[in-house]
Design a protein that fits this description.
The chain is mainly alpha-helical. The chain has a single domain, classed as MFS general substrate transporter like domains (Growth Hormone, Chain: A, Up-down Bundle). Helix content is 77%, strand content 0%. α11 packs antiparallel against α18. It starts with a helix and ends in a 10-residue tail after the last helix.
């Protein structure tokens, strides 16, 4: 148990509240809403990645234009994440998340259009909703499950990590066996988004009945540049860790199926590699936050999960196609642990919900801008060299600063926060 978990700041929650947000909204409703939220934060990425070749052929696109569907949303995650701190000053966290999921629903549905500009617009619109939801997911967990942060962060991260691979693996079979049209297949992914909107709207309605004086701590959230996080070495270390691990994750989401299709695998088999990556990430996504919440220092844990990704990247670089699933599993174990650790560190290092919101905004706005460089750079290097060797070597090199950031973020060092 860390000091932060053992000592709840007086500005966060009452010492002995008469009732809590969870007692009002209900455990079942809270868990369902968090599950559907996590599941819908990466479906757009995985489904687009699986159908990228078909989309390119339909519109005669080059690699740069097609990258709008994979890199564009990642840029949205960085550019629009800062909206979260302003939104929660006016509305409750569940209400803002409901709005985010509505954007994801509309954007996902628009991908079924036959017009390329509308397809891009819908993808970016979904990216904006996901950007704000990314920031507020850990905050919702802190508000509803303050004494189960590790467990619920693990569940949430496992679903986020798995959803891209689920979409990648299921999209091709849905297209070939059910819909027989890639536009209809992409449109079908709006169904889980609609379920998430309904669940979060119910949570927001129940949460609205709760006494706002005990839960609106995020209304005191100050703008990012006034919150002190920009002057904290710990905050920058967590941001670097979030950004670099996301750079690797989105590079793999965008290009891993393509790498192995270029090596001779079928579209369905290559898509299933991303599914294997995502499903394997569940193991570390569930366990790493629990372990992290029970120890004072998380540095060794950070190095361990990065080492898994290093092993997976080396396998993709020099290993044969026959062992592709092994390398995908190693990458998944590393990425699930890295993402869940990054999100857990936000809550473990921040002394109250206000600073946690600002820290989450910083790590994800700056972090995802870093992440957007991954797919773009990998694709550009591949286009220039005609091989995947150089992009993979560049990604391996990025594991060095990722390790350093993880080591620094995991230290139980005091940070100069200013509420």
């Amino acid at each position: 148990m860390t000091d932060i978990e053992a000592r709840r700041p007086s500005g966060d929650t009452p010492a002995v509240p008469a009732r809590t947000p969870l007692s009002v909204v209900g455990v079942g409703a809270a868990v369902v809403a968090i599950v559907l939220l996590g599941l819908n934060l990466r479906l757009v990425f995985g489904s687009a990645s699986a159908m990228l070749n078909e989309i390119r052929q339909a519109y005669g696109l080059g690699a740069g234009s097609a990258a709008l569907l994979t890199t564009g949303p990642v840029l949205c995650l960085g550019v629009f994440a800062a909206i979260a701190t302003q939104a929660v000053r006016r509305w409750t966290v569940p209400a803002v998340l409901t709005g985010c999921l509505i954007l994801v629903l509309i954007g996902t549905a628009l991908r079924g259009t036959s017009w390329w500009p509308v397809l891009v617009f819908g993808t970016l619109l979904a990216g904006i909703g996901i950007a704000v939801a990314n920031v507020l997911g850990p905050i919702l967990i802190r508000l509803l499950f303050p004494h189960r942060i590790g467990l619920m962060t693990g569940l949430f991260t496992a679903l986020v990590s798995a959803s891209a691979g689920i979409a990648s693996g299921v999209t091709i079979p849905l297209d070939t066996s059910v819909f027989h049209n890639w536009r209809t297949t992409l449109l079908a992914w709006a169904i889980p988004s609609a379920l998430a909107v309904a669940a979060m709207a119910l949570l927001a309605w129940r949460h609205h009945r709760f006494d706002r004086t005990t839960t609106s701590v995020t209304r005191s959230t100050q703008p990012l540049w006034q919150a002190g996080v920009l002057r904290s070495q710990v905050a920058w270390a967590i941001t670097g860790f979030m950004g670099l691990q996301s750079l690797l994750a989105y590079s793999m989401i965008a290009w891993l199926p393509t790498i192995y299709r270029d090596r001779g695998l079928t579209a369905e088999s290559a898509g299933l590699l991303l599914t294997a990556l995502s499903i394997s990430s569940i193991a570390t996504a569930l366990t790493v936050p629990v372990v992290a919440a029970r120890v004072r220092r998380q540095s060794v844990l950070a190095v361990a999960v990065v080492a898994l990704s290093v092993a997976g990247l080396i396998g993709v670089l020099v290993g044969g196609v026959g062992a592709a699933v092994v390398w995908a599993i190693l990458l998944g174990l590393g990425q699930g642990g890295q993402l869940s650790l990054a999100l857990t560190l936000i809550n473990l290092r921040a002394p109250n919900t206000s600073i946690a919101t600002s820290l989450s905004t910083m790590t994800q706005s700056i972090g995802y801008l870093i992440a957007a460089l991954g797919p773009i750079t990998a694709g550009a290097i591949h286009g220039a060299t005609g091989t995947w060797t150089t992009p993979l070597v560049v990604l391996l090199t990025a594991m060095i600063p990722l390790t350093l950031c993880g080591w620094m973020a995991g230290r139980d060092a005091p940070a100069a926060w200013r509420a």
